Amino acid sequence: MNAVPLPRGWLIPSRVQSIIDGASPPLRAGGKDLPIVNPTTEETLSVLREADAAEVEAAVVSARRAFDSGPWPRLSINERKDILYAIRDRIRVHAEELAWLECTGAGLPLMRVREQVQRAARAFEFFAETASTLHGETWTQTTGWLTYVTREPKGVAALIAPWNAPLALASMRIATCIPWGNTCVLKPSEYTPLSVLRLVEILHEAGLPPGVVNLVNGRGSATGVALVDHPGIDLVGFTGGTDTGRAIMTAAARRLVPAALELGGKSANIVCESADFERALDGSLVGIFANNGQQCLAGSRILVQRSIARKFIERFVARTQGIRVGDPLAPTTEVGPLAFEAHMQRVLAYTKVARDEGAQLLTGGRRAALERGWFVEPTAVLARSNEARVCQEEIFGPFATFVEFDTLDEAIALANRSKFGLASYVWSDDLGTAMRCSREIRAGTVWINTPMMRELRAPFGGYKESGIGRDGPAASVDFFTEQKATIIPIDPPPMHRFGA
Ligand code: NAD
Question: Which pLDDT value is given to residue 7?
């Protein structure tokens, strides 16, 4: 198959392969190829050569060597920082190329992806700075002794990323892992490998030594399992679904290595009568329909106070019907196709679930009437109760569910009645209401009067089945470094002399 040219001469390679020790390994005979399909046109763009256990082994050996004897962990922090800044700069230089690859391979709208690429660049800068302020502790209270505590990189990480924001999530995993001197093997989703492949090339073009970031591609059941089970892995960073997270935690526990899990969500978006109505409306639409509705932190469960519910839902539905669905590469598109066909079918199946549960279909619920592509109409349903499946299960598409409430007590109880606890949104101009929600909602992030602002300096992660661990400077230090205590006597202390 020939490479597919993109605008401005950018290319999609005719075959997507691993990158091990800074280069693609030789193609093995009889390996498995998977199609890489454009979700907008349903055309096959390329093929992905799945990394088998032997290729995963080679990637881990490379990362191991880079950690155990390579330059990366041994560079001075300023030298590492220079390379991480060079990565930031090179991502910026190639921002449009990365954005086009992401739109083409994952169907995410250009307006969204451009922001994500800039954030990826910033993440490398931010965690380089964080690593450069890493410091230890000294303890001198015990007379005659000096104890100092240093931090060391933890080793070789397996990093596993999902398809819903491939570049944003893979880059965040790498940027939080390598600045401390760790090395890694990254496995992106088999559905959306294109932008991540280019990102890993860019890391090397910017001067990252070979072996620090290795890339293996393939299905979770083949490549992913081989990676997580590999004895050369010291820790696992995973972003993806809750059931997969459980499997990964089990595999990590068998090998007694730590795992950080960023998992699913079904976040409550509480709209109170005390809210600025128009801002709450705008924010609730962003909360569910941004990123094609495929985001862990989506405000997918909209709880609206009964006194304003009728008007709010009417306006929400009218706006939903005006959403521009189409080619993700068009700068004005607001919702693109879902990432792959089976996922579109899964999202569409929830229309029947909603009907069977007696929910009222307010708008959408069908495949969008475009000629091609895995498009779903932006959808909203009014559920009979928060216990309905459409309110409890992560649908992960442009599918909003509404539930009405009367009192703030009830809204908080409903928000917490979920197995997830990733994020929540509160719309109210009453300070007491906002502060009470912040205190009582069991979720890792509470956004008040704003949709999904990600502050790199703050921890991000979930309560309950939404995850274990956090992304963020302090949390990354804890997860990606080991603490070591060195104890030295200042004066030779008295010592018992056995057998003297
Ligand atoms: P997924 O769990 O199906 O797959 C995630 C990754 O894990 C993929 O690379 C997949 O190939 C791999 N994988 C699957 N089974 C594996 C196994 N047994 N061993 C090792 N690797 C395995 O998730 P997805 O469908 O790609 O992504 C969507 C999910 O990710 C949603 O639930 C979403 O909420 C969640 N997510 C969470 C966050 C967060 O920060 N909390 C961010 C984005 C997405």
Answer: 59
What is the token pair recorded at 101? 């690859």
Position 2 scores a pLDDT of 40
Label the pairing between strands 137-139 and 145-153: antiparallel
Q: How far is the CA of 429 from the centre of ligand 1 (A)?
A: 36
In this predicted structure, what is the pLDDT of residue 387? 98
Q: 261 C-alpha vs ligand 1 centroid, how far in Å?
A: 10
Which atom of ligand 1 is found nearest the CA of 264? 34
Catalytic residue ranges: 262, 296
**191 alpha carbon – ligand 1 mean position (Å):** 11
Cβ neighbours for 475, distance < 8 A, ≥ 6 positions apart? 459, 461, 469
Q: How many independent structural domains does the chain possess?
A: 2
**CB of 303 closer than 8 Å to CB of 268:** yes
Give the distance (Å) from ligand 1 centre to CA of residue 490: 51
Side-chain half-sphere exposure of 299, counting CA atoms within 13 A: 30
Mean pLDDT over each residue of the chain, to the nearest integer: 97
Whether residue 273 is found in the same domain as residue 258: no
The ligand 1 atom at the shortest distance from the C-alpha of residue 265 is: 34
Structural domain including 59 reads 4-263+466-485
pTM assigned to the model: 0.96
Give a yes or no: residue 299 inside a domain.
yes
Protein residues whose CB sits closer than 6 Å to any atom of ligand 1: 160-164, 169, 187-190, 219-220, 224-225, 228, 239-241, 244, 247-248, 262-265, 296, 394, 396, 422, 462, 467
- What is the CATH classification number for the domain harbouring 63? 3.40.605.10
DSSP string for 273-325: TTS-HHHHHHHHHHHHHGGGG--TT---EEEEEHHHHHHHHHHHHHHHHT--B
Residue 457 lies in a domain: no
Residue 137, pLDDT score: 97
Q: Would you place residue 9 in the very low, low, confident or very high pLDDT band (cuts 50, 70, 90)?
A: confident
Atom of ligand 1 lying closest to residue 466 CA: 41
Q: Give yes or no: residues 18 and 159 share one domain.
A: yes
Q: What integer is the mean pLDDT of 217-237?
A: 98
Residue 92 burial class via C-beta count within 10 angstroms: exposed 0-12, middle 13-18, buried 19 and up: middle
